[in-house]
Design a protein that fits this description.
Strand content: 25-35%
Radius of gyration: 20 Å
Number of helices: 7
Mean pLDDT: 91
Low-confidence stretches: none
Shape: globular
Oligomer: single chain
Amino acid sequence: MHRFFVPHLYNEEMYIEGVDARHISKVLRMQPGAKLQIVSDDGVSAVAEITAIDSERVSVRCLEKLAESHEPRVQLVLAQGLAKGEKMDFIIQKAVEMGAYSVIPVAMEHSVVRLDGAKAAKKVERWQKIAESAAKQSKRDIIPEVQAVQSMSEMLANCTCTTKIIAYECEDRLSLKAALRAAEAAGGISQLLLIIGPEGGISESELDEARQAGAVPVSLGRRILRAETAGLVAMSAIFYETGDLGD
């Protein structure tokens, strides 16, 4: 069943406008009486029936609230070093599908890509659309935010996550599993910042800065992973360890 996000508080009578309305009417060719899922701005998911439709507005009547949540127990924020080409598109799409709460593009010292001003804003706008599309496809209860491009210093200063982990290819003592279990034993994990470097890796100064902000460097195993692979591997392991991928 198709799912759409509605930027209004939940009500029994609601409407869908703009791009989604055009998609419903012109691409999906749905008619009055057809059913779909909606997610309201206050996080309520429901099955709804189309009562009226045109190319700019689709009116629906909510039939049943859905109690089941599709969101992970841990709010995971992915701070991803800027990657070149279409790699960031891929990373953001897959991170949202897997359950990331938010994605922060980080301009790191070894990032090949350099974004600023209008160019950065345009990229973030594109990435937010990718996140929205991925959220719909994967039946998320929220549309994760793709935040503005930030430096490592800005990202660490703005972050409020209680647990911070940085994947570092030269770390050979502490595994991701061990770090997660230590965090769980120390009081549990509710919000987690995962820092992943760009193609050129994380610099020593960035590693020191992350450590000073409370981030724990971890190993993701014996093999060196690409920038577009490392975050997804780490997210899979985190959600498995915290019970989101089954007991």
